[in-house]
Amino acid sequence: MLPGDSLYPPMHHNQHHNQHHTLAALALGVLVALGACRHAGSPAQTTEQTAQMVPTDPWADPPDDVLHQQIADARQRAQASGRKVLLEFIAPWCPDCRAMTDLEAQRPASDVLAERYERVRVNVGPAFDHHTDLLHAYGVLRIANYVVLDATTGQRVAQTTVEPVTGHVPMTSARWAAWLRDPR
Predict the structure, then answer these.
(1) 33 and 82 share a domain?
(2) pLDDT digits (tens, 9 = 90+) for 121-131
(3) What percent of the chain lies above the pLDDT cut of 90?
(4) Which of 103, 122, 132, 148 gets the highest tally of CB atoms within 10 A of its CB?
(5) What is the per-residue pLDDT for 135?
């Protein structure tokens, strides 16, 4: 190969023109996407808009004050929509929690959760040492633990611990949906 030779066949004028349009459209798409990302994180966003966003990380572990605000916001949304609040005490190291997180994404459990609950996940931390005020308030000694709250009073309506892996108690999406429809 000599200097100036190309591995690619020569382009005609129209191919150069189309290539420039394609690159321009790609650049415009990137700029629009960056603008949308910048706007999504803007301080002008309301608390309600932020609260309605679903966290992409089910194992997020916000500070206590942020978590308490998430619970207050969930109660407010639940009151407005006639739903209940579901506190989910979990941790990423817990095999039961991982199994339940997968199961909750399946129908019919996913449908019941979306229709009837405002959810707040409470990561208990690596040694059950995070959000201890909530752990004590609800008597959470094992996980995956679920607490259903009345949106108006904030009082506990029901509570259960689900251990499909370590407790050898099989759980299906249909069985979990049944409990969620009539928590006791």
Answers:
(1) no
(2) 999 999 889 99
(3) 62
(4) 122
(5) 95
CATH no. for residue 63? 3.40.30.10
Range of the domain at 17: 12-45
Backbone angles phi, psi at 148, to 5 degrees: -95, 125
Distances (CA, A) of 180 to 7, 77, 109, 114: 63, 18, 8, 11
In whole angstroms, give the CA distance from residue 113 to residue 85.
Answer: 10
Residue 118 contacts residue 74 (beta carbons within 8 Å): yes
d(Cα 59, Cα 31) in Å, to the nearest integer? 31
Q: For each successive 10 residues of the chain (184 residues), what is the average pLDDT?
A: 37 45 39 38 37 63 91 97 96 95 95 97 92 95 96 95 93 96 93
The answer to whether 59 touches 113, Cβ cutoff 8 Å, is no
Residue 72, CA distances (Å) to 22, 55, 153 in order: 48, 16, 11
Residues 146 and 61 in one domain: yes
Kindly give the residue spans of alpha helices, DSSP state H, lying in the chain: 13-40, 47-52, 64-81, 95-104, 109-116, 132-137, 173-181
- Please tell me whether residues 56 and 93 are part of one structural domain: yes
